[in-house]
Amino acid sequence: MERTLLAPVEKTETEKIIYSRRAVRRYKNKPVDRQVVEEVLEAGRMAPSAMNRQPWQFYVLTNKETIKAFSKEIAGVAMKGALRSGVSGIAQMLKAASGLLHLSRGVDLHAIKDPVFYGAPVVIFLTARRDNEWASLDIGMCAQNIMLAAKSLGLDTCPVGFGKFVEKTKIFPRLHVPASEEVKLAIILGYGDESPEVHERTRDNLLFID
Asked: Per residue in 79-104, pLDDT tens?
């Protein structure tokens, strides 16, 4: 049977935003207006959550020196944690550094100055109560809303898993996060100074059951 090819369908504005979002790790030295940050977070609040608990809390850094200080502390804690993981020697150190600095994309001096937050002008720590078993899923949906809203406003973002290590730093109290909450994720936000290519997407993961 001859196969009929469907004409390509023009993407909606929402789809265009989804397809254009990238994890950006280089930012312009340009501040983001506080009102814009609040607008992005308002989109995050619109995410669905289990039983509508809306578990997310946002702790935002915008001061350059403060961000650098947190980045340095988090990087140090992450490396120490890697050393205690049971793998020893230079090879282990290189592997940890590669993951932290994304060396697979080339050594970037800009990133090394700020090995966790890449010089972004805004860092958002997302937390939720420790006793909420669904919070991680809720935070993930909230984070996606934040990143898509940011892209629609001409901003770029990157989710930073290493942000969780902030709890183990000596300067963590400066965030004023209550003991009942835990940091789930960090998101960096700003005006991107790079245009990463899209990674190839897996296509063999779809199965129509009935």
From this structure: 776 666 555 444 454 455 555 555 44
174: domain range? 23-190
142-165: pLDDT as tens digits = 999 999 999 999 999 999 999 999
Is 134 part of any domain?
yes
Number of structural domains (the chain) is: 1
Per-position DSSP letters for the chain, written without gaps between them:
-PPPPPPPPPPPHHHHHHHH--B---B-S----HHHHHHHHHHHHTS--GGG----EEEEE--HHHHHHHHHHHHHHHHHHHHTTS--SHHHHHHHHHHHHTGGG---HHHHHSTTTTT-SEEEEEEEETT-TTHHHHHHHHHHHHHHHHHHTT-EEEEEGGGGGGGGSTTGGGG---TTEEEEEEEEEE-BS--PPPPPPP-S------
